[in-house]
Specification:
Shape of chain B: rod-shaped
Distance between the termini of chain B: 148 Å
Helix content of chain A: 25-40%
Distance between the termini of chain A: 29 Å
Number of helices of chain A: 7
Helix content of chain B: over 70%
Strand order of the largest sheet of chain A: 1-2-6-7-10-15-16-17
Order of helices and strands of chain A: EEHHEHHEEHEEEEEEEEEEHHEE
Largest sheet of chain A: 8 strands, antiparallel
Structural class of chain A: alpha+beta
Number of strands of chain A: 17
Largest sheet of chain B: none
Oligomer: heterodimer
Structural class of chain B: mainly alpha
Number of helices of chain B: 2
Strand content of chain B: 5-15%
Number of strands of chain B: 2
Strand content of chain A: 25-35%
């Protein structure tokens, strides 16, 4: 039997699935998982003024709790591994593009493409001994995507103490182990309808420019910033869905492949064995990285 | 009055007279009154001492004034130097941070992606089952 629990958090819809018979203990675990999401949002949101992340962005330095420390460490590692395509320091560029408040409040106030784009890739230092995170002048962090993936992985570990579980935070999906049916069928939007991917365990995430987009004059802007230019990416890919060991890894790889463009993304996915679905801007769905 | 008493009185009177006589002679009342006129060299020395003491006071006041002005100027100078040093250190830190960022960004971009989970991607496949949930752009 599949138990479901849905709620809203982190600016998106969240879904918990546990492959277990109805029980008070599992329901309580699901409610605890929801509380954990709200607790993490209160630490990691860039929109709430009193979170650790907001203080870091405002003051340039913060003595961080273990969650923010781990997440920033993970984000910096992802920046290194993706050659800078995934970069947590894109916040000034996001803000310049107009995404400087929760998405529901975003209007077309961004800069035009001819304006000066903020620089990305600034320095972030972590002192593990003192638990202090410090950023260079002008550097601000946005942990949105990777934070959702990381939180999904964390909730999945919590729920897996009771039964096989799947956690979806706005499409960032983590599965702990296979359910009784053998795999979790997860839908992926494609131009020809919906594909279904059977995920036994691990993470699945989608990055794309088809959501969280807005207009500035005649120009359409979106939240997938290319750190190399400091502007919304302009590749030929609309959306990339990636399967990886964890949801956080999947989120990072999806962003990196989206910014690579179709040709390079196919090469890299095949070379590194990253199962993915690439949806192009001219409405084609391409499977790569061994996915079939 | 007995003889003995009379004799004793006479002796005492004689001793008193002797003492008074000695005191009169010791006082030398015949010597001339008033001090001898002071030596002009002593007067000159005294006048010079007074002048020197006055000069010393003036010199001390002058030196103390200059010392006070020097201390104030030194304090100001030290403030200026400290401010310049702080400005210099800040400029160095900003330059170092900028250089570090540039090097870091360059090294990140030049290395190319390697992907952390490449070797451990989970087995996935396309199936025809109805989806339990859906992944979409977050």
């Amino acid at each position: 039997m599949m138990l479901e629990h849905r709620f809203g958090a982190m600016g998106t819809s969240c879904e918990l699935l546990v492959d277990a018979p109805e029980s008070f203990v599992v329901r309580r675990a699901m409610r605890n998982a929801e509380r954990e999401v709200h607790r993490l949002e209160a630490l990691l949101s860039r929109f709430q003024p009193d979170t650790e992340l907001a203080r870091l962005n405002r003051e340039g330095r913060v003595r961080a709790g273990p969650e923010l420390l781990e997440l920033v460490r993970l984000a910096l590692k992802a920046r290194r591994l993706t050659g800078g395509r995934f970069d947590p320091t894109v916040l000034p560029a996001l803000a310049a593009a107009g995404y400087d408040r929760s998405f529901e409040s975003v209007s077309g106030s961004g800069h035009s493409a001819t304006g000066t784009a903020p620089r990305c890739g600034g320095g972030v230092q972590i002192d593990h001994a003192t638990r202090v995170i410090e950023v260079d002048a002008g550097v601000q962090l946005d942990l949105g995507g990777i934070a959702k993936g990381w939180t999904a992985d964390r909730l999945c570990r919590m729920l897996d103490l009771h039964a096989p579980s799947l956690v979806s935070l706005g499409g960032d999906i983590a599965a702990s182990r296979p359910p009784a049916t053998g795999a979790w069928p997860v839908g992926v939007e494609s131009p020809t309808g919906q594909l279904t991917i059977a995920l036994a365990r691990g993470g699945l995430a989608t990055s794309g420019r088809d959501r969280r987009r807005w207009r500035h004059g005649d120009e359409e802007l979106h939240h997938e910033i290319d750190p190399a230019t400091g502007r919304p990416s302009a590749t030929d890919l609309m959306r990339v869905t990636v399967a990886a060991e964890t949801a956080a890894d999947a989120e990072v790889s999806a962003t990196a492949l989206l910014l690579a463009g179709e040709a390079r993304a196919r090469i890299e996915a095949d070379r590194f064995g990253i199962p993915c679905v690439l949806v192009t801007r001219d409405d084609r769905a391409v499977l790569a990285g061994g996915l079939s | 009055m007995t003889d003995a008493t009379r004799r004793l009185s006479l002796v005492a009177a004689a001793i008193l007279v002797l003492f008074l006589t000695w005191a009169f002679i010791a006082a030398r009342p015949w010597a001339a009154h008033g001090a001898a006129p002071p030596d002009p060299r002593v007067r000159a020395l005294v006048a010079r001492e007074v002048r020197l003491r006055h000069d010393a006071v003036l010199v001390r006041r002058l030196v103390e004034g200059r010392w006070r002005r020097y201390r104030v100027a030194l304090h100001h100078r030290r403030l200026v130097i400290a401010k310049a040093n702080a400005h210099h250190r800040h400029a160095l830190a900003v330059a170092a941070a900028a250089q570090r960022s540039a090097v870091q960004a360059a090294s990140i971009r030049s290395s190319g992606p390697t992907y952390s989970s490449a070797s451990s991607a989970p087995p996935v496949r396309i199936v025809t089952l109805p989806a339990l949930t859906i992944t979409r752009s977050s």
